[in-house]
From TrEMBL:
GO terms for molecular function: DNA-binding transcription factor activity; sequence-specific DNA binding. PANTHER family: HTH-TYPE TRANSCRIPTIONAL ACTIVATOR TTDR-RELATED, HTH-TYPE TRANSCRIPTIONAL REGULATOR. This is HTH-type transcriptional regulator TtuA. Transcriptional regulator of the ttuABCDE tartrate utilization operon. Residues 1-59 form the HTH lysR-type domain. One of its GO terms (biological process) is DNA-templated transcription. It comes from Rhizobium tropici.
């Protein structure tokens, strides 16, 4: 059997943890799957799986070989796609992720413009306020807010955001404007548990204030709405209140006490070998986000 095909079979067995499931998914007989794995084990001189009547688990050698096989097969697929032209023309479905509000407010308009520009493309969005492993979940592009850990992903900085305190003119007229973070203890606070679960809020110069919100909201939208209505103050990322700021419905306070801004990055895993669908979207999104004055 072709070695590359045997490697594909091995990878599928490792992913499904089943010889029978692999046979069904690859339209092969179970004995053929077994022979393919056995041929690889003979070739490298090590067992790849520990088999019992109930489970199939990789050995330590199998786990190392699995990572190498996936990389090699990805390189082959990349070379074939390049030869076939998919690296020149956007094709397929673009799968991207961002946080909920940022995705709805700033990413979605870019996505729809992208689909209008490349009529053969489709897109799928995952807007969630949780960490997403873009490799494990098959994401093509991610937009992330905050400082990034070291990784092998390509990261392009496209802007910054600030964490700000805000309230409505109606509230300030009735209750006054806090002059320092310490004054917040005397004001009504609506906090979004989705954005900042800790009761300790940090400000510039390592100032820390423990707040006891009267209202805790599980969404940013709810906390912002309460502030717009004049009920209390809230703390959010400034892009989330961009329209309300421009309409005069909210005002930022304590700006001199803000922490340094956080970066916005576009991430993707393919590096310089990214297919056309990724490259064209990243180029479009980078230009659009950098031109947005609310994000810089």
């Amino acid at each position: 059997m072709d070695r590359w095909q045997a490697m594909r079979i091995f990878v599928k067995v490792a992913e499904t943890e089943s010889f029978a499931d692999t046979a069904r998914q690859m339209f092969m007989s179970a004995p053929a799957v077994t022979r393919a794995v056995a041929s690889l084990e003979d070739l490298i001189g090590a067992r790849l799986f520990v088999r019992t009547t109930r489970s199939v688990k990789m050995t330590e050698a199998g786990a190392r070989y699995f990572d190498d096989c996936r990389r090699i097969l990805a390189d082959i697929a990349e070379a074939e796609a390049a030869a076939g032209g998919s690296y020149a023309t956007p094709t397929g479905t673009l799968y991207l992720t961002a946080s909920v509000l940022f995705g709805q407010m700033y990413v979605l308009p870019i996505v729809t413009h992208y689909l209008d520009t490349y009529s053969t493309m489709k897109a799928k969005t995952l807007f969630v306020d949780r960490p997403v492993n873009i490799v494990d979940e098959g994401i093509d592009v991610a937009i992330r807010i905050g400082h990034l850990p070291d990784s092998g992903l390509t990261a392009i900085k496209v802007g910054t955001v600030r964490r700000v305190m805000c309230g409505s003119p109606k509230y300030f007229e009735r209750y006054g404007v806090p002059q320092s973070p310490a004054d917040l203890k005397d004001h009504r606070i609506a906090a979004s548990t989705a954005a900042w679960a800790s009761p300790e809020w940090r400000f510039a110069d390592d100032q820390r204030v423990t707040v006891d919100p009267v209202l805790r909201c599980n969404t940013n939208e709810a906390a912002i709405h309460s502030a717009r209505e004049g009920w209390g103050l809230t703390r959010v990322l400034h892009y989330q209140i961009g329209p309300a700021l421009m309409a005069g419905e909210l005002q930022i306070i304590l700006s001199e006490y803000e922490e340094p801004p956080m970066p916005i990055h576009i991430l993707h895993p393919e590096g310089r070998h990214a297919p056309a669908k990724v490259r064209t979207f990243v180029d479009m999104a980078s230009a659009s986000l950098r031109e947005n004055r609310l994000l810089n």
